[in-house]
Amino acid sequence: MKYLLFVWGWLLPLVLLAEPPLEPLQIAKQFVAPTGWPEMKSYLSGEAAGQARRQSLGQQIPTTLQRHCELLEQREHTAVVAVELRDSVSRNDFYLHFRRDSASATIPWKLAAIRSLGMTQLGPPMLKLLAEMPPAEAAQYNQKHPDASRDFMLGNIQLWIGSDANIAEHFARHQPEFQRAADLVQSRYFTPTLPDTALVRTEQAANADADVLAALRPLYISRVTRRNLGCANCLEFLIGGVTDNTVGLLYQPVAAKVPPMSPNRIIVMKPLGNGWYLYKTT
């Protein structure tokens, strides 16, 4: 008995000192820290393991950038952490997708994929061209594009290539207008009884409605749809993008009906309050 008590007394400090497994948010903070992380490879899987073979994301970016991590969602087997990198002139957003390895007790959570909005390199040249357009040329442009004027395109592209914080700020400033636009579109077109066979035709009619356009254009929204995210009961306010790399705002008051995030399609779904979300796809 004395021997057992001696062994237990020797092991007890080790048990008390054993740290619990790292959670996704903790792993994210380690991964984006400017210093190295010797244990990094043990916390990577899949494509993330191939992308970060020698250096963490934090080591690959300038040390002057501030790093902010936010846990967006943690389910039983998946989790998503949003990472904002910023300095005095710019902000960039990345999304870290985690998977839970139930076979590992010491390292259950591993970073599986790193995502950001793609194809945004086309935006700055377009923005520069529109911003430097002479007044006479801008007037001609507006005549040729009555539904997407120069001023609309300037605001729209700034949102498209802007940070999540910029989009959230834009939404916060105009939340009543966004809600009125959603109510208008739903009452006229996307009613609960709308059959799927009429979705395309109804969507075209909604985006050609003068009242709907008058509500969307000051908000720098390109169009409304219910078909991009695979959520029949959601209303999407598309800002822009190229091919499948899109950004927009989603309206769905019932949180349980909001489509889940994944590295293969919806790379981020950030709640903005009152049933509104910022989304990006890839």
Provide a brief overview of the structure:
With 282 residues, this protein is α+β, with helices and mostly antiparallel strands.
Q: Mind explaining what this structure looks like?
A:
The chain is an alpha+beta fold and 282 residues long. The chain has helices at residues 2-17, 24-32, 46-51, 57-60, 123-131, 135-144, 150-160, 164-173, 175-188, 199-208, 210-216, and strands spanning 66-74, 78-86, 91-100, 109-115, 223-225, 235-242, 245-251, 266-273, 276-281. The chain has two domains: 15-115, Nuclear Transport Factor 2, Chain: A (Roll); 120-281, no CATH class. The strands form two sheets. A five-stranded antiparallel beta sheet has the order 5-6-7-9-8. A four-stranded antiparallel beta sheet has the order 1-2-3-4. α5 (123-131) packs antiparallel against α7. The longest helix is centred in the first third of the chain and has 16 residues, at 2-17. The relative contact order is 0.11.
